[in-house]
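Have a think about this chain, tokens included, and walk me through the fold.
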Amino acid sequence: MEDLSQASIVVEFGTGTGVYPEGILRRLGPDGVFLAFEVDDRLAHAVAARLPDPRLTVINDSAENVERYLSSRKADTVVSSLPFTTLPASLKREILEAARDALKPGGSMLVLQYSKRILPDLERLFGRIRRRFSPLNVPPAFLFACEKTDGGPSGEGA
């Protein structure tokens, strides 16, 4: 996982039961802000109750609305384990574009998936992608670390 100790803002899409937020909070510096998005209201409330940390704000909303909550700020890191292969193509595109737009230049999006099918979408949006495969994970998992560059993958401003 990225070094989050100096991060100002970290965003997570698909907080679920709160497994990743615990690790993120352990790594986040004392002045960091952590925005965790979860569409299931039961899960969102459960995570907020279980992790009472002033750095954490659990948001019961969909990931493509991230910029509403950032206002004019930009995130250092976006973490997502959303099941992109099961989402409608238009929603997947909206979420990935919202994540890219929410990042400051040089920021990164970490994407955990159980398939490589997301890779062309990530390559279209991000300047640099590092890949890691975890065959011992059950099921085996892919981690994509995507960096937002100033020019984007095809030279457009991102």
Remarks:
- The chain has one domain: 9-147.
- The first helix runs from residue 19 to 27.
- Residues 154-158 have pLDDT under 50 and may be disordered.
